[in-house]
Amino acid sequence: MAKHYKHIETRLIHAGEPEPLINGAVSMPIFQSSTFEYAGQSSYDDIRYIRLNNTPNHIALHQKLAALENAEAAVVTASGMAAITTAILTFLTPGDHLLTQDCLYGGTHEFITKDLTALGISHDFVDGDAPDSWTGKLRPETKMIYMETITNPLMQVADLRAVAEFAKANGLISMIDNTFASPINFRPSEHGFDLSLHSCSKYLNGHSDIVAGAVIGRADLMEKIIHKLNHLGGSLDPHACFLLHRGIKTLAVRMRYQNESALRISEYLHKHPAVEKVNYPGLEGQPGYTRARELFEGFGGMLSFELKGDVETADRFIRSMNLPIIAPSLGGVETLITRPVTTSHAGMSPEDRQTLGISDTLIRLSVGIEATEDLIEDIEQALVKEK
Ligand SMILES: *Cc1c(COP(=O)(O)O)cnc(C)c1O
Predict the structure, then answer these.
(1) How many domains does the chain have?
(2) Are residues 261 and 306 in the same domain?
(3) Which ligand 1 atom sits closest to the C-alpha of 180?
(4) Which of 248, 273, 304 is where one domain is finished?
């Protein structure tokens, strides 16, 4: 029986660690061995092999991740997209139907609209703010509802309580991409979601140096997902497991700092006369604010905003900043800045972007762990140049 630690800070450090420690090593050693001596296993999934996700590095991470979200089980994958595609393909087969939020991570949007459609798996988009409209989209073959905790790049928060209830009432599997919140700010299992998905490339690892993913949730569903992953092959290498394991230990100190810093930067931008609009669920008066306050323990390190002016204004501002690195991706210790239309949402048609409210001038900031004052000063000097 695994030990239970009350607080997430303690679970980050101690949950899932080998007992006793391996040769006394304080840090989990890397087991860089593809195969392991046969020990009488009778099922294929129990043979010890890296692709079967059961080396000591995998097992320690699985236990830690499940403990973080107070869930029954977890598995790590080769990328966030491997987690998402494997989990969806475990439960949907040709003829099935999926309900999904309309504003999704670009890769997920493409997978659902292109790859699933090609496989004969259909979908309908639902408005996360309008639970009354969901029942009308149900079909006898609807099997799943798919959401994101905080949407990218507008940082919206759907009626997540209603989603979990709707899924239960209609026998659907509920999946939520919890990457933007991280287990510090939101733990889907505690709110009735069946499965939580992560791109661990972001906050969980936190150092922008690996690509990895995770699925966390109900044990009965996780067993099926792991068997599917064993076939599809999107397994995480032990060396990347080691880096993720190391990164996870500081998640709470990073995330809490990033929550605080992003909130202060949002407030600063919100008051600035050169700023047209700020999207951050922690700003009072924003559409998702009340919901986010009820559901989350922090509002996250991601925000987006529009300056008064055109695309040129936005690009000049981005180039005038000194600290943030112009790059897609998020969740690391370095602050990153990007115009989503040129990066994360470049694959989406201009019409779809317009429907969702993603303007060409929108700027997205992933707040790192630099001093908040330094970041605000940097924004200030870049805005002064705009005048
Ligand atoms: C980055 C990201 C993904 C994809 O993760 P990869 O690790 O790049 O495959 C999925 N969902 C969200 C919300 C993301 O930010």
Answers:
(1) 2
(2) yes
(3) 13
(4) 248
Ligand 1 atom with the smallest distance to the CA of 82 is 9
Residue having the nearest C-alpha atom to atom 5 of ligand 1: 80
Q: How many CA atoms lie within 13 A of 352 on its CB side?
A: 14
**Residue 153 maps to which CATH number?**
3.40.640.10
Q: Establish whether residue 79 lines the binding site of ligand 1, counting it when its CB lies within 6 angstroms of any ligand atom.
A: yes
What pLDDT is recorded for position 47?
94
Q: Which of 75, 69, 73, 40 lies closest to 55, judged by CA? A: 75
Q: 158 and 60, same structural domain?
A: yes
Q: Does the annotation mark 105 as catalytic?
A: yes
- If asked whether residues 232 and 270 sit together in one domain, one would say no
Q: Is the CB of 194 under 6 A from ligand 1?
A: no
Q: pLDDT of 257-269, one tens digit each?
A: 999 999 999 999 9
Residue 80 lies in a domain: yes
The pLDDT value recorded for residue 94 is: 98
Domain for residue 93, yes or no? yes
More confident residue, 357 or 63: 63
| Residue 211 Cβ < 6 Å to ligand 1 | yes
- What pLDDT is attached to residue 354? 86
